[in-house]
Structure formats: C-alpha cells, structure tokens
Specification:
Layout lengths: L4 E7 L6 H9 L6 E8 L5 H11 L3 E6 L4 H11 L4 E4 L5 E2 L3 H12 L3 E3 L2 E6 L5 E7 L4 E3 L10 H8 L4 E4 H6 L12 H12 L3 E3 L5 E5 L13 H18 L4 H24 L4 H14 L1 H8 L9 H11 L3 H12 L8
Parallel strand pairs: 1-2, 1-4, 2-3, 6-11, 7-12
Antiparallel strand pairs: 4-10, 5-12, 6-10, 7-8, 9-11
Length: 344
C-alpha cells in the first residue's frame, strides 16, 4: 500500500546536518510516509550517510544523481514520489514530530491542493548552539471559490514563497505539470509556488509552524553577488503580482506590495555589490548594469504608488529610477554590516 505522504529531501554536501534532518522526519507521530533523499552529486560524506539511512529504515529511499541544483533534485524526488501528498524539507533544516500529522489533517479538512504554514527561524552560533528561535505564524484563512479576497501582508508573501512549509496534493502537481524551474537559482521556490497557488482551487493557510529553518554563520543572499540577482527578483515579483491579481486583491494593495518588494530587492543588490573587489567605481558599474536590465527598469519605473511606503523604500526606488548608484552603495555598505538571515 503506498504511503500517504512523500517527503522529498534534497541533499548536497551537508554531511554535518543531514542526520538531524532525516531523524526528525522518521520521528514523526504520523506513520504513513516515505522519505526520498536526493543526493545531488555530493562530494563529502553525504552520499554515504544517505545510503546508511536507507539500509537502516525501509521508509527511506535514496536517489543518487549528478549535481544539477536544488530544482533538479526536487524534481527527481517528485518524479519518484508515491504518496498522495508531497512535501519538501531541505537537508540542513529539521521538523518537529507533529509536522506531518498537522499538515495531513489540515489538507483533509480543507480539501486544499496546497496547505501553507509558518516557520520557526532557528539561529545558531559558530559552535552549532541555538541562540534564538523566532516563531513566525500566519493568520488562519482559506482562499477558494466564494471566499473574499485574502488580506495580504509582506509576512504572508514570505510564507507563500517557500517550498518547505507546505504540503501539496501530488496528483494536482502532476496534472498541471507543476515542477521547479531547473537552471534557475535564488527564486525557484517563488516561481514554483506562484504557479501552484494560482492554479489551486483551494489554498489553506494554517496558524502553525513545525519546520526549523536553521540560520548558521555563513555567506547569505544578502551578501553573495549574483550578476542577475535583480533580474531574477524582478521575475519573482512579477509572478507575485500575477498571483495577487488572480486572488482579486485590491489594486492599490497589490501595487504597494510590489513597490516594497522592489525597493528591498534593490537594497539587497546593493548589499551584494559592496562586497565585490575593484573599488567603488567598479561597484557602481556592477549595480548600474543590474538596474539597466530591461525587466528591472520596467519594474522600477512602474512603482509609482509609493506614498504609503517607508521613507527608506521610497528613497531607494527614487535612486534606482534615476540609476544613482552612489547613495545605494552607501546604504548597502551600512546594511551589510548587520547580521543577515540565511537565504535559499
């Protein structure tokens, strides 16, 4: 008899973390599940650790593949999944024992194709000790036929973007050919979920959090440099806009959210550029090239509903519109000194 839930866990060079992740799934109070570990061409001991779990527990299956990135690994796991429902968990995070039981119950009660939860952001120091855990919980709501337009805030937008705080009806994903976009980094979760949430008849948001999204001291999206960072963010923001329009969110609210997301994407790009070598002139050239991308320029130019934004966000958009990089880099240098969360 097939399991009710397939848990897909992509694994790449995380030998120090994967044991806690797999143990947390095997310790679930809900019993009908399988774990699909997708070893994405690991070069450390992760491969052997995955095989060891499969040898010890019949609920664990391992897929070994050449390195293809997070999206490709998840798609491999999804193609192999036998469960009626599927969820994703990154191999360096972990879940509390009630995770699957709660998600399955919520899906059964709502009939939703997608169930969304919150997250527990677990901060660890260099020694691996937990120094703080922030619990972020969304308000309960069901989005579907006959429901009023949902109340949307930036925290909910954040929850909607992740893949690992949800459970999906697998047949729904298969029937609509919903897969992660391979070859795309940084925004793969957002692109996948925007399509899934737009397609779903019913989306249920649960006021609960079970997955521990572990933050460790290392390079983050806030400081790593990607030449196409802003172009990718522009795609994600456009997809988010389309989702909110589909949900009949008030146009002025949609434009305010889009403007805020755009300002923060520009600020992130500035943070990433200030860490690059070559001096301020070279950094200004890099940031100016990001802002000159056609999709980015169109997005920034369209952010005209800014009166309700924070003063800093309004200023960032004004600088970006005129491609004035000097002030943006100064802001980036200041904000880069602050602690940043791990990104995916």
């Amino acid at each position: 008899m097939p399991p009710v839930v397939s848990v897909v866990v992509p694994v790449w060079n995380i030998e120090g973390y994967v044991d806690q992740c797999v143990s947390s799934v095997l310790d679930q109070s809900f019993e009908s599940f399988e774990v699909i570990l997708v070893d994405d061409g690991s070069t450390d001991r992760s491969r052997d650790i995955c095989d060891g779990w499969a040898d010890k527990d019949a609920r664990v299956r391992v897929i070994h593949r050449d390195n293809g990135g997070l999206s490709a690994a998840r798609n491999s796991g999804l193609a192999a999944a036998a469960g009626e429902l599927v969820c994703f968990l990154d191999g360096d995070d972990w879940a509390e024992p009630g995770w699957l039981a709660h998600l399955v119950r919520a899906q059964r009660e709502s009939g939703a194709e997608v169930v969304v939860t919150g997250v527990k952001v677990e901060h660890r120091d260099d020694s691996g000790e937990v120094v703080r855990c922030d619990e972020l919980i969304p308000s309960a709501r069901t989005i579907g036929p006959g429901s009023p337009p949902p109340e949307i805030d930036l925290q909910l937008i954040n929850f909607l973007g992740y893949a690992w705080n949800k459970i999906y009806l697998r047949l729904f994903l298969d029937e609509h050919a919903l897969r992660f976009e391979e070859g795309t980094s940084l925004v793969e979760d957002i692109l996948f979920n925007a399509a899934a949430l737009r397609t779903a008849e019913v989306v249920a948001v649960e006021p609960a959090a079970f997955v521990h999204y572990v933050q460790r001291p290392r390079v983050t999206l806030g400081s790593a440099y990607y030449p196409d960072l802003l172009a990718l963010k522009a795609r994600a923001i456009d997809q988010t806009r389309d989702l909110l329009v589909h949900w009949r969110v008030a146009p002025e609210r949609v434009e305010g959210i889009v403007a805020t997301m755009t300002a923060r994407a520009v600020a992130m790009a500035a943070r990433s550029v200030v860490a690059q070598p070559g001096g301020r002139r070279a950094q200004r050239s890099l940031l100016r090239a990001m802002l000159a991308d056609a999709d980015v320029a169109e997005l920034v130019a369209g952010c005209t509903s800014t009166s309700a934004l924070r003063r800093q966000d309004r200023w960032v958009l004004a600088q970006a519109r005129r491609r004035r990089t000097r002030g943006l880099l100064l802001l980036g240098a200041v904000s880069a000194r602050r602690p940043r969360r791990r990104g995916r």
